[in-house]
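Risk register update: the risk that structure generation would not scale has been downgraded. Supporting records follow, first protein first.
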Amino acid sequence: MTAPAPGTDGPSTRPLTAQHYSVAPPPATPEGYVAPGMPGAPVAGFTPTEPTPGRTPRHPRRTALAIFLALLAMLLGGLAYGSAPLRAADSLGWLAIAPAGLVALPLGRLGGPSRLLPPLGALLAAGALLLGQLIEHLRRLHPEGPTPDGLLHDTLTTWRTDLRPLDAAFYAIALIGGYLLTRRTATRS
C-alpha cells in the first residue's frame, strides 16, 4: 500500500491508508521544539536572575566552626546538667534532650546538611549527658570542693555503681535526640 497522492482534480476523497517507509520520516516539528506546558518549555515573561549574594555554598571553615561550637555546647550542657540541685537528680534524667538540643543547634545551622554531623551530634549529646552525670557524682562525693587525690577514680567508681537500667533510656534519648535534632536543624536552613 502506498500513501494516496492528490489527483489532478484536487485532493483525493479516499480515506488515508497506512504509509510504509523504509527510513523514519522526518519529524513534523522542528528540532528542539517543546510544546507549551511540557517540562523544558520556556515560561512566558520569565527572566533568570543572578543568585542572591547571601546564599553561598558552605565552606569547610563553617563546618569546623560548627563542630567547635557544638563541643562548647556539649561542655556547657554537661555543666548545666551536672550543676542542677542534687534533690532533683532523680527526675533530671528526662532532661537529656536539652543537651542534645544545645549540641544540635550549632551543628545543624552552621554545618548544614552533612552526613558526618548527625552522628557527631548524637555522640556529643551523649557525651554531654555523661559529663553532667560525672559532675553530679563529683558534687556528691566532694560537697565542699574537689580534692586532687583520687578525684577521677572515685567519681568513676561511684558513677558505675550508681548506674540504673533507666540510665540506658536516658542515653538513648540523648543519642536519638542529638541525631534527629541535628538533621532537622540542618534541613531547615
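Supporting record for the second protein:
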Amino acid sequence: MGAYLGMRGDGASPRFVTQARLVRIRGQNVLFSASQHAIFTLNDTAADIWRLLEQGKQAEAGARGSINARDVHGQVEAAIKDWQRLGLIRPRILPLDSSAQGHVSQMLSVAGRRIRILYPMAHAFPTMAIFRHLEVGEGTPDIVFQLVEQGDRLHLFRNGDWLLASAPDEMATILKGEMLSDILGSGTYELALHAAALLKNERLVLLCGDPGAGKTTLTLALAHAGFGFASDDVTLLKADGRCVGLPFAPAVKSGAWPLLAERFPDLDATPIFRRPDKRRVRYPVPRTANAATAKAWPVGSVVLLHRDRAAKPSLDKIDPVDVLRGLLGGAFAPGGELGDTSFDVLAGVIGSVKAYRLTYSDLDEAVTLIERACA
C-alpha cells in the first residue's frame, strides 16, 4: 500500500499515492482498501488505467486495448476523480512548514492535552470559532493537526502524516473526531463514558441514554439554565473516581434547531457544517463552557434518559445496577478491554451517587425536574 501513481508531464514527481491494492480474482478486477476494510470492483478499462498509473506512466500515452485513444483523457480524469472521492487514491502533497505564510495557528487544551491546529487562511473560519473556548496560550503541543488545501478538498495531516481528505464544510466534524481519538488514545484515564457532563454545586451530573434520547439537546438546555458545561458526549473517569469532561461544542442536528431557538437566539446565525454522512449540524458553544478542562470533579448524580411523548414527565430514583448497565453500555477503556481496576473504580462511583431515570417529552419540564434534584 502507498505506491505512487501517475508521473507529471515533465517526468518529475508522481501526482497521486495509492490507498488500495489491485488484484484479479477469477477474471474480476478488485481493489482492496485496507483502511476502509472494503473492496471495489473495476471494469477492464478502469483496471488498465490503474495499472498504467501505478507503473508511473501516462495513461493517455500508454492507452491500448480496452481504452479508446479518442476519449482516454476523459476516462482517466473521471476515474481519478471517482477514486479520490472513494478514498482509493490521494494527491501527493506534503504538509507545509508550521511557520509558512498564509496559515493560521490555534492552540487548544482539552483534558490536559495540548493540541495545535494549522489552518489555511482561506479555511480558518468559521471552523476556528467552534474551538475558540478551548484556546490557551502558546506552548509546546502534544500533537499537531494541519490542513492543506488541494483543489476543492482539504487534506488533514497529523504530526506530518496524511490522514484523510474532505470537503471544507465537513472538516470541523472530522477535526473534532480526530481530537477525540487522540485524547482517548493517550490513556490517562480509567474509562471513557458515553455521557454528557454538567457541573452543579461542585459536582457533575452525568446524562446518558440511547441514541435519540435527546442527550445533546437537554445538555444545551441545562447549560442555558446555568449548569456548567463540561461535555455533551464523552466524559473521562479517572483512577480516583473523579471525572474530566471533554467540552467540545455540541453538534446539534437540524431537527433540534427549533427546540433550542429560544435558548440560543443566535443559533440561526451559527454556521452550518456537514458530517461525513451529509447530515447538517450546527455547533453552538454554551456560555458556561470552561476551557480549564484539566480539572477533575466528583460525580454527584447520574441520569438515564428516556424520551416518551405519551408518558407523564418524571424523575425517579432507580437501582444503581441499572445505572451501571447504562454507563457500561457505551464505555471505552484504554487498550479496548475493561479491566478489573476500571470496573472497580466505576462501581465505587455508582455506589456513592444519586441515580435517576428521567422520563420526558417536554424540554422545559425535563430541565425543571433536574434542577430540583440538584438543588
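Confidence is low (pLDDT under 50) at residues 7-13. On this basis the risk owner (M.S.) recommends closing the item.
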